[in-house]
What does this fold into?
Amino acid sequence: MNACMQRSPCRIRIAAPLPQNGAMTSPAPRRRILLVSGILAAWLLGALVVRLGLDWADTFPYSPASEVRYLVIAGVALAVAVGGSVASILWARRGRRREKGPGHSVTEPPL
It folds into this structure.
């Protein structure tokens, strides 16, 4: 006989209780959300560079130089997206180092 059959009413806990007032229990989830948001924003900004760059490039008549313009626009957009992603990752890692406080260096082993 299981515990649910012995007592009435049967109360089964499925998940842990939620924090009150929407507060997060630790800074780690907030940092992860900011990291993902930063990477997503970087790629969206790269897509915006492509869209605006191609609109600008289409104002000129087609010529062999147009292909070079398209490649430059694609390179700039890729650089914006990758650079923004790297910046977001480095920013999140810097925040993690600050949370550990002074004396807890990530690069230096403790003495």
In short: The mean pLDDT is 78. The radius of gyration is 25 Å. Residues 64-100 form the longest helix (37 residues).
